[in-house]
Amino acid sequence: MLSDMPDADVSQWRAWLAQGELRPYFQAIHSVQNQGVFGFEVLGRRIDPDGYVHSLGQFFESGGTADPYSPIQDLKREVDLTLRSQALERFQREAPDGSCLFINMPPSLMARWTPGEDNDPVSIRMIRAAGIDPRRIVIEITEEAFPGQLEPFLQLVARYRREGYRIALDDVGAESSNLDRMGLFHPDIVKVDLALIKRSVDSRNFREILFGLARLAESMGCELLFEGVETDEELFNAFDKGASYLQGFRFSWPVPHFEPEKGETPAIVQALD
Q1: What's the CA gap between 54 and 26, in Å, rounded?
Q2: Which of 3, 87, 94, 230 could form a disulfide with 58 if both were Cys (CB 3.0 to 4.6 A apart)?
Q3: How far is the C-alpha of 218 from the C-alpha of 215, rounded, in Å?
Q4: Pairing between strand 53-55 and 37-47?
Q5: pLDDT tens-digit profile of 35-60?
Q6: What's the angle, vertex CA 247, arms to CA 241 and CA 249, rounded to 5?
Q7: Which of 164, 162, 168, 163 lies closest to 142, judged by CA?
Q8: Chain centre distance of CA 187
Q9: Phi, psi (rounded to 5 degrees) for 117
Q10: Torsion of CA 252, 101, 170, 264, to 10 degrees
């Protein structure tokens, strides 16, 4: 796969993407308080003619350039908008009433917006055209480095907030820079990847980092979303640190459709008994 080739160029990625059909998949996010589905995160997939499913995660992480107008970033934006358009149309038609949609927003794509009162970001235009209430959308800023000055990003986040969108930060705790972003953006939701943190630190530091994140989020009025939850131990760690939301294979896998309302999530109900 091209993701294993750090020098893969744009034409190679384009050829790889063209070998299948691009589709959004959706992974459910579960509420601890309501013990049911809270929302869904949009994830990119390429479906081969024989039905094999490829994640687009490593494609979006490829390139290594901070230039938001580079050829690889142009291709990423093209793919991102294709997936986002499909996801919004499906969400408007099929998602359970009251559920939310988490849309990943890499800083390199955010950087293409030019501040101006009459210049709506492309996401706002797409969501408005789809007839979706902004309060049902969570803009999830990914862990990618910010290119250029921070001020335009702060203005863009403020613009989303004025429209009624919620803001989430992804992979907080994996890097110290992500903690800095909490202070800059004051997110509504902080996503903590348990598996990512656990791979990068020893067990003692793992517990201390989780404790520190929980205290910081509480002091800032942020809700904690623990992702990458796969085991009962990780589930109880999330409960112990004040998780509001949970995401991971312990509850559900990414699928090409929205899960219907099914009431309570058994794994959460059993763990809280």
Answers
A1: 14
A2: 3
A3: 5
A4: antiparallel
A5: 889 999 999 999 999 999 999 998 99
A6: 120
A7: 168
A8: 13
A9: -60, -30
A10: -40
The Cα 225–Cα 253 span in angstroms is 16
Q: Could you tell me which residues are beta bridge partners of residue 104?
A: 140
The single-letter code of the amino acid at 248 is G
Tens digits of per-residue pLDDT, 186-243? 999 999 887 766 665 455 666 777 777 888 888 888 999 999 898 888 888 888 888 9
CA distance 41 to 166: 14
Please report, as a single letter, which amino acid is at residue 76. Answer: K
Count Cβ atoms below 10 Å from residue 152 Cβ, excluding itself.
16
- The dihedrals phi and psi of 227, each to the nearest 5 degrees, come to -110, 170
Residue carrying the six token digits 């063209």: 18
- Model's pTM, two decimal places? 0.90
Q: Which residue has the tokens 């408007």?
A: 92
CA-wise closest residue to 91 among 47, 128, 132, 138: 132
- Ordered DSSP codes for the chain: -GGG-TT--HHHHHHHHTTSEEEEEEEEEEETTTSSEEEEEEEEEEE-TT--EEE-HHHHT-S----TTSHHHHHHHHHHHHHHHHHHHHHHHHSPTT-EEEEEE-HHHHTTPPP-TT---HHHHHHHHTT--GGGEEEEE-SSPPPS-SHHHHHHHHHHHHHT-EEEESSTTSSHHHHHHHHHH--SEEEEEHHHHHHHS-HHHHHHHHHHHHHHHHHHTPEEEEE---SHHHHHHHHHTT-SEE-STTT---BSSPPPP-SS-HHHHHHH-
DSSP string, 80-145: HHHHHHHHHHHHHHHSPTT-EEEEEE-HHHHTTPPP-TT---HHHHHHHHTT--GGGEEEEE-SSP
